Amino acid sequence: MRFFDDVSVGDRFTGGPVTVSAEEIIGFAGQFDPQPFHLDHEAAASTLFGGLAASGWHTAGLTMRMIVGSDAKLAGGYIGLGVDAVTWPKPTRPGDTLRIEGEVLEARLSAKRPTNGVARVRIVTLNQKDEVVQTLIANLLVPTRASLAVPA
Q: How many independent structural domains does the chain possess?
C-alpha cells in the first residue's frame, strides 16, 4: 500500500480492463439514467449517439471500479474530496473494453488534516480503440505514515 509519503507528481498508474455489455448499459440506465439512447437500441439509433450508449455516470462507475483495482494501491482506499472536471468526449458502447491511465498532477499536505495529503489526479478512460471515453480530475485524501501513530 502506498501512503502519501510515497506519492509524487508525475506518478502514473493503470487499471482494467473491464468490458461492458448492452445488458449492463440498459440495466444501469433503467435504474439511474432512463433516457432512450441508454435504454433501447432502436430508439438510440435516431439520436445524436446513433446507437446504444452508456450513461456517462455508468462510465464513471466503471472507471471507479478500475481505480479501486488499479496498481495505485493507495493506503486507506480512494477517498474523494471532490471532482474538478469530468468529460465524456466519446460514448461507451456495448462490447467496449475499457481501461484507465492515471497520473498524479499535484501532491500536498492537507491544511485541515496534517496526517493526510491531497493528491490531485487525472484519470483517462480509454476503449479498446484507444479512444478517450472519459477524463476525470479528482482530489483524493491519502493518509501519511504519520497517520498510523494517531489514535482513531
A: 1
